[in-house]
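User: Could you walk me through two proteins back to back? I'd like the raw sequence and the C-alpha cells for each, with a short line separating them so I can tell where one ends and the next begins.

Assistant: Of course. Protein one, sequence then structure:
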Amino acid sequence: MSDNKFSTDSASQRNRLLSCLQAAPVTTIEARTELEIMHPGGRVQELRAAGHNIITQWAIDSTGKAAHRVAQYVLLSAV
C-alpha cells in the first residue's frame, strides 16, 4: 500500500507542477520531494508540448552534503 499523498498518474503530476509553476519557479529537488514527481523533466517536456512557455535555469541546491547544480523551471506565460 502506498503512503503517497498525491496521485502518481502523469496528468495529475502535470497539473500539480503547473499549479506550482504559476506561483513560483520549481526545482527538480522540490518537484521530487514536495510534489512527489520522480521525473520532473518529463512532465515539463509534456507541459511544453501542450504549449506552456517554460524555461530551464540552473540553480544551486545545497540541501545535501555538497552543493550541486539542479534544474529550476520557470513558467514565463500561460497558454
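----
Protein two, same layout:
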Amino acid sequence: MHSKPQLLTWITCDGVHIDPGTGKHTLLGVFSNIQAQHFPVTHPLMVWFLTLSDCALGDHKMRISMGVDPRQMQPLIERDFSSQSPLHRINLINEIRNFTFPAPAEYALLIEINDEPLLATSLTVTT
C-alpha cells in the first residue's frame, strides 16, 4: 500500500521563472484574492504553483476544478505527471489564461490527484 500524495505548496501568482542554471523557481506576484471594478472580469494570467511529495513511482493525473458552488465544480486543468520516487518533490506550474469571473464571489477550488481530493480551498473575488 502506498501513501497518499502530500501537498507541500499551493500558491497563486502572476508567473514562475525557472533559473536555467540552477533549476530554482522564483515566484512572481504572489496574491490571494482578486479585486475588480466591473463584472464580468477577465483575469489575463494567473499561475497555480504546487509542490507535491509522497507520490508513488509512476504516472499520475492532477485535476483542478473551480466553481461558486462546491457541489458543481468545473474542471479547469487536467494534466498528467510522473514521479520518479515518493521522496521526489514535484513542482507543477499551472497557467490559467483569460479566465472570466462572472461576479464577485468566493470561488471554491478543488485539487485532486488520481481522482482523490488533496485540497479544498477558495479564491476570493471582490469589488
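Residues 17 and 26 are 5 Å apart (CA to CA).

Let me know if you want the two compared in more detail.
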